[in-house]
Specification:
alpha+beta, elongated, 24 helices
Length: 464
């Protein structure tokens, strides 16, 4: 076995420290003993973790002069460094990684000493407490390098870490098997927990016991669905044991920040099988913990996904389908801390998704663009038309927004004061212009100024 006795002893000490508040194993309840043994259970690992040697153009393209310089430093100082996680997964999938993360046997202090000796500047020192040092090589390229570590104590959001030089133990603390592989700078791929097998079969599996991995960080529930959309070939081929672990631990999401939840959920809704995965998320009863109402409109989601899946809906547009009201959209924003664009899009979709019958089908939507003083309204309307799979979507996208023909100078000549009053008059005239299907002339609009001024005065004083 590759997992030799010293490693077993080390893990035993680690897991026992996790339960250090318990007087002894014999005094634990039955469920506590089961949980302890679950923590102690180690997943099957390869006897020889090196499964192949990469020699592809994408792999070789990673080796900039800066990376070669970094690799040389670690080698000269006697430390091992490997590419970790997602970049290895991407390379094995035939993709060129966008980002590189590195793992090393060197501690943060040893890395700092090395980089100081090599006259290399280090930036973003906030990562040091987690074991990450970021050198900037040749004042051109930054590299995040993290010491191998073990999560000794976790609370579902944060972890107390212990540094190690054991690559298997670092792989063991990672979330999914496909993210637990390393790549040596000689091209050797290290796969301790059969991640490459899962990648080839398009399977998403947690490293070892899914309950243990989830309880270390409850955000891994959503990461499971994100990587399912990224890797899987079929929309609904989930492992039932994994789904049960997710459902049994769903309440842990309530303590995860909205920003972190939305970061993952947005990627799910922007990826493959997004509607199918949102349906599964709701069926797993995760909705109330991530801002989706408990009485979510699942039927509407299924309808929208069925008719509009080919239109590349904005994540918020798809998510809005499960909302029943504007109040639901407000609550969603409160939980997820959406951007202003995203918040207003959710409100707009919920408000304007019902049919707008008109002899000219696009006129109600064109009038919205002309009336609402918001640069994003055009895009919001596009999303509503996608939501409803409108046959007029392309026509609207090709519509040139007409220019409002009245200016402030024109109103000055009519005796309208500058400032707030002029803004109100322009708004009233713009709305009238839109209601008249934006066909009337500037002269016809200016004739409305006395009536507009009268209406404004009535509103203010309740008399003309």
């Amino acid at each position: 076995m590759f997992l030799v006795r010293p490693r077993i002893r080390q893990l035993t000490r680690i897991f026992k420290s996790y339960y250090s508040t318990k007087p002894s194993l014999s005094n634990l309840t039955k469920s506590e003993r089961v949980e302890f043994l679950r923590q102690m259970a180690l997943p099957k690992s390869r006897e020889n973790p090196v499964i192949l040697k990469l020699d592809t153009p994408d792999y070789h393209s990673l080796f900039t002069d800066e990376l070669k310089s970094l690799a040389s430093m670690f080698k000269e100082h006697g430390y091992e460094i490997r590419i970790a996680g997602g970049a290895v997964r991407d390379l094995l999938s035939g993709l060129r990684p966008k980002d590189l993360d590195f793992a090393t046997t060197a501690t943060p202090e040893q890395m700092k000493e090395m980089f100081v000796a090599e006259n290399v500047r280090m930036i973003n020192m906030n990562g040091e407490k987690h074991g990450t040092i970021t050198p900037r090589i040749n004042d051109k390229e930054n590299f995040e390098v993290t010491t191998l570590r073990i999560d000794v104590v976790t609370d579902g959001r944060h972890a107390e870490v212990q540094f190690t030089t054991d690559w298997l133990l670092d792989a063991l603390r990672r979330d999914l098997t496909i993210n637990s592989m390393f790549l040596g700078l000689d091209g050797s791929v290290y796969d301790y927990f059969y991640g490459y097998d899962d990648l080839k079969e398009r399977r998403i599996k947690f490293v070892g016991d899914p309950v243990t991995r989830i309880r270390e960080d409850y955000l891994r529930i959503l990461r499971y669905f994100r990587f399912y959309g990224k890797i899987s070939k079929e929309p609904d081929k989930h492992d039932e044991e994994t789904l049960k672990a997710i459902m049994d631990n769903k309440d842990g999401l309530k303590n995860v920040s909205g920003e972190r939840i939305w970061m993952e959920l947005k990627k799910i809704l922007d990826g493959n099988f997004s509607g199918d995965l949102l349906i599964k998320i709701i069926e797993c009863e995760l909705g109330p913990y991530i801002g989706i109402p408990e009485n979510s409109n699942l039927d509407e989601l299924k309808l929208v996904w069925e008719r509009s899946r080919a239109l590349k809906l904005h994540p918020i547009t798809l998510l809005s389908s499960v909302l029943n009201s504007v109040e639901d959209a407000v609550a969603l924003n409160s939980r997820l801390k959406l951007s202003v664009f995203e918040r207003d899009l959710a409100l707009f979709v919920v408000e304007h998704r019902p049919p707008k019958p008109h002899v000219k089908p696009l006129m109600p939507y064109q009038q919205l663009v002309l009336k609402i003083s918001n640069k994003n309204t055009f895009q919001y309307v596009v999303e509503v038309l996608k939501y409803n799979n409108s046959p007029h979507l392309e026509e609207f996208q090709n519509w040139s927004i007409p220019k409002f023909p009245v200016t402030g100078n024109m109103l000055k000549e009519k005796g309208v004061e500058s400032g707030r009053k002029m803004g109100l008059v322009l708004t009233e005239l713009r709305n009238y212009w839109a209601e008249q299907e934006y066909k009337i002339t500037p002269e016809e609009l200016l004739k409305q100024v006395p009536n507009v001024l009268c209406r404004l005065a009535e509103r203010k004083k309740n008399k003309c």
